[in-house]
Amino acid sequence: MAAGVDLVQVRARSLSGRSLLAHAEAILRAARDAAGASDRSVRVVVNRHVDVTLACGADGVHLGFDGMPVEDARRCLGPDAWIGVSAHDPREVAAAGAAGADYANLAPIHPPLSKAASRVPLGPAALTEAASSRLPVLAQGGITPENAAACLLAGAAGVAVTGTLLQATDPGAATRALRSQLDSRR
Question: Are residues 129 and 181 in the same domain?
Fold first, then answer.
């Protein structure tokens, strides 16, 4: 986070209950510390768990394809919460926007680096189509410093990254490289 991440999705599928809450609280503290040490904010959303989002005071929730409806999450979390959704098609992005989501992760744009590919990569044309819905779209799947700027040029509002950071020997350096590419295109 200190290297430039501005949105963290707490995604720990092996944790539940108190363990997940403690994990989310630790990440939220680190995010607030990183934001306090810089002139930018670091938002934290919890994957799928509205209850944990409420309990730890996270900024919002990220809903998967099998999560609760956006409208229900909004009723639980209120008008200021960030509600994101996972999408695998530009039509899903448009539907999420109509339902009141604040952003969508569109994936996979490229073959994922953090897991085996289970879907055909959508490519930049899907980003352009999804961005026409006016809902901010984060490009996800195989995002690297080499292709991040092209995602913005295709219409993405930002990128969602897992493999590039988690597989890096120096995640801070990898984050700074991504941040540099994104900032140079804004």
Answer: yes
d(CA 142, CA 155): 17
Select from 10, 43, 61 the last residue of a domain.
61
pLDDT in tens, 23-71: 999 999 999 999 888 888 899 999 999 999 999 999 999 999 888 999 9
**Mean pLDDT for all residues in the chain:** 94
Which residues are CB-neighbours of 148 under 8 A, at least 6 positions away? Answer: 139, 159, 178, 181, 182
Cα distances from 92 to residues 14, 29, 72, 128, 177, in angstroms, run 27, 33, 17, 14, 30
Whether residues 57 and 108 fall in one domain: no
Q: What is the pLDDT of residue 185?
A: 79
Instruction: Indicate the angle between helix axes 70-77 and 90-99, nearest 10 degrees.
Output: 40
Total domain count, the chain: 2
- To the question of pTM greater than 0.90 for the whole model, the response is yes
Residue carrying the six token digits 């306090």: 36
Distance CA 185, CA 130 (A): 19
**Residue 67 counted as domain residue:** no
Claim to verify: residue 107 and residue 158 sit in the same structural domain: yes
pLDDT at residue 36, rounded to an integer: 85
